[in-house]
Amino acid sequence: MSLDPSFIGRTYPATEVYEVGREKIREFADAIGDPNPVYRDADAARAAGHPDVIAPPTFPIVITARVGEQVIFDPELGLDYTKVVHGQQRFVVTRPVRAGDRLTGVLTVDNIQAAAGNDLISTRVDLCTEDGEPVVTAYSMLVARGTSGELSTSAEPSS
Amino acid sequence: MIATSTPRTATYDSVDEGSELPEVRSRIRRADLIRYCGASGDFNVIHWNERAALDAGLPDVIAHGMLTMAVAARIVTDWVGDPGAVAEYAVRFSRPVVVPDDEDGAELVVTARVAKKLPDHRVRVDIVVRSGADKVLSMARAVVALA
């Protein structure tokens, strides 16, 4: 079953605030195996020009993936999550996420399409501080493999 | 996870289009996937349960694409020194990183080069990530501001 295309263009209300903690950043940096001191030591971060420890470039996914669940897990969309793989990811950074940030995300469904028997959904999450300062925009494309009812006649590769 | 490289600092004037960044090699073992599950909140079973991975048509447990993306970013952040200089980072997940249940796990080999010098001391870096014979990320690009 293909996804409901009427979701394209839908925007969701800003999510509740996520407060970024120093220890969460450290835990994430440990998990990705990156010893960079600006992720752990406020003095090192200040020496690099930041007010507090900053988060690695992919850290925003911790927040934006949850924001995206509003549509991904909406039964009306019709996405079979057991078939889903991550197709593409892009971050556009206004400034790095840092400890003490209180962030809220606004989710928009940019596109839904079927290609080569797969269902593709592209979303965007604009992360801002609760005061409205833009921080990072995360663009995600998820692929539900083999879930489109259409015949696989498209020449487009199935990522 | 063991990655071999040391932080250093690149400057705009010292790099040319085509300049190669120091290669980064990193190993991902099953325990790293569990740790990333906890840190990221992504507990999808295909990243820790072999039976579920096989049921999903995969050859074995696979790494989170976002973990591969994070490991690959280090070739740029080590090179530029300050990870806060990354203005944009994008990848396509072209092949899964299969992580066998053994001591060696999967090796990621990350290479990159300066593809274009942009205005305002920015450069576009194109990144290639291989695991075994597979190119696991494609169209992997970062835009960074250099000193």
Give a structural overview.
The complex is a heterodimer of chains A (159) and B (147). With 159 residues, chain A is an alpha+beta fold. Chain A has a domain of 107 residues: Hotdog Thioesterase (Thiol Ester Dehydrase, Chain A). Helix content of chain A is 18%, strand content 31%. Chain A is built from 3 helices and 5 strands. A 5-stranded antiparallel sheet of chain A has the order 1-3-4-5-2, with helices on one face. In chain A, strand 3 and strand 4 form a beta hairpin. Chain A starts with 17 loop residues before the first strand and ends in a 15-residue tail after the last strand. By secondary structure, chain B is of the alpha+beta class. Chain B has a single domain, classed as Hotdog Thioesterase (Thiol Ester Dehydrase, Chain A). In chain B, 22% of the residues lie in helices and 34% in strands. Chain B has a 6-stranded antiparallel sheet.
How would you summarize this macromolecular structure in one to three sentences?
The complex is a heterodimer of chains A (159) and B (147). Chain A is α+β, with helices and mostly antiparallel strands and 159 residues long.
- Total domain count of chain B: 1
Distance between the termini of chain A: 19 Å
Please name the CATH topology of the domain at 5-21 and 55-144 in chain A.
Thiol Ester Dehydrase, Chain A
Question: Looking at this structure, what is the CATH superfamily of the domain at 5-21 and 55-144 in chain A?
Answer: Hotdog Thioesterase
Question: Helix-strand pattern of chain B, N to C?
Answer: EEHHHEEEE
**N-to-C SSE string of chain A, H for helix and E for strand:** EHHHEEEE
Q: Quick one: how many beta strands of chain A?
A: 5
Known CATH architecture of the domain at 5-21 and 55-144 in chain A:
Roll
Strand order of the largest sheet of chain A: 1-3-4-5-2
The residue fraction in helices of chain A comes out at 10-25%
Structural class of chain A: alpha+beta
CATH topology (fold) name of chain B:
Thiol Ester Dehydrase, Chain A
Contiguous low-pLDDT stretches of chain A (5 residues minimum) are 151-159
The CATH H-level superfamily of chain B is: Hotdog Thioesterase
**On the 0-100 scale, what is the average pLDDT of chain B?**
93
Q: At CATH's second level, what is the architecture of chain B? A: Roll
Largest interface: A-B, 37 and 41 residues
Distance, first to last CA of chain B: 30 Å
Tell me the fraction of residues in β-strands of chain B, as a range. Answer: 25-35%
Count of DSSP H/I helices of chain B: 3
**Strand content range of chain A:** 25-35%
